[in-house]
Amino acid sequence: MSIIVRADWDDEAQVWVATSHDVDGLAVESDTLEALKDKVVAAITDLLELNGFAGDGGLPEIPVHIMSEQMARVPNPRF
User: SUPFAM superfamilies this protein is in (predicted)?
Assistant: First the structure.
């Protein structure tokens, strides 16, 4: 089992926003991808525990794939 998280840059808010179809309720934002990663892992851990997936032995290690996307534009060269 692994979790896919999508991280998109919100140009208006100037933050990365992470969501996932694999974890209901995941919505995290941060100024940098590095900080977002830490917040995503903490939020997923909390959400899984709240939804009863921890069991008696705690949560197993689950790979989290954070897929980021940011759009850039090439200026129109005026010849």
Answer: TTHA1013/TTHA0281-like
Residue 74 included in any domain: no
How many independent structural domains does the chain possess?
1
The pLDDT of residue 71 is 78
Q: What is the DSSP string of 9-74?
A: EETTTTEEEEE-SSSTT-EEEESSHHHHHHHHHHHHHHHHHHTT-S-TT-PPP--EEEEEE-----
CA angle centred on 72, ends 14 and 35, rounded to 5°:
40
State the residue range of the domain holding 36: 3-69
Residue pair 73/9 in contact by the 8 Å Cβ criterion: no
Q: Does residue 79 carry a pLDDT above 70?
A: no
Reported as a pLDDT band with limits 50, 70 and 90, residue 6 is: very high
